[in-house]
Design brief:
This protein is 24% helix and 32% strand. It has 122 residues and is α+β, with helices and mostly antiparallel strands. It is elongated.
Length: 122
């Protein structure tokens, strides 16, 4: 695979669903199902990759260069095949674009605190 085939390097935030994912040596692994991260904090957690054996979670430290039309993993084909199912790592996005579970939990925590303060008149 040449640099022309994969396109220009891009940030994880520009990565599109359906982009091809390759293990070391150019072995096709699957396609991007979901990009996991907290864009507002510029934190990339990893990818959910759709493979022939189901969706797999790839932690950020195993994701190599990201290009317009391909993502390279820092794993060989055998390691890629042994990746955990994505259900073991639920998506970190919830709700609207860029909203994270962390942010949603923070909002719930604030609402609960305000409700408690009202009830106890603090």
């Amino acid at each position: 695979m040449s640099d022309e085939d994969v396109g220009e390097p891009i940030a994880y935030t520009a990565l599109q669903r359906g982009t091809a994912v390759f293990a070391e040596g150019g072995v096709a692994v699957g396609k991007v199902r979901e990009v996991l991260g907290a864009q507002d904090k510029d934190i990339f957690h990893g990818l959910v990759v759709h493979t022939q054996d189901g969706d797999r979670f790839v932690a950020a430290e195993h994701v190599g260069p990201i290009h317009e039309r391909a993502v390279a993993l820092r794993l060989d084909a055998e390691q890629a095949a042994a990746l955990p199912r994505s259900s073991a790592h639920p998506p970190l996005r919830a709700g609207g674009a860029g909203e994270t579970v962390e942010a949603s939990l923070g909002e719930l925590r604030d609402m609960a605190r305000h409700a408690w303060e009202r009830l106890t008149r603090r």
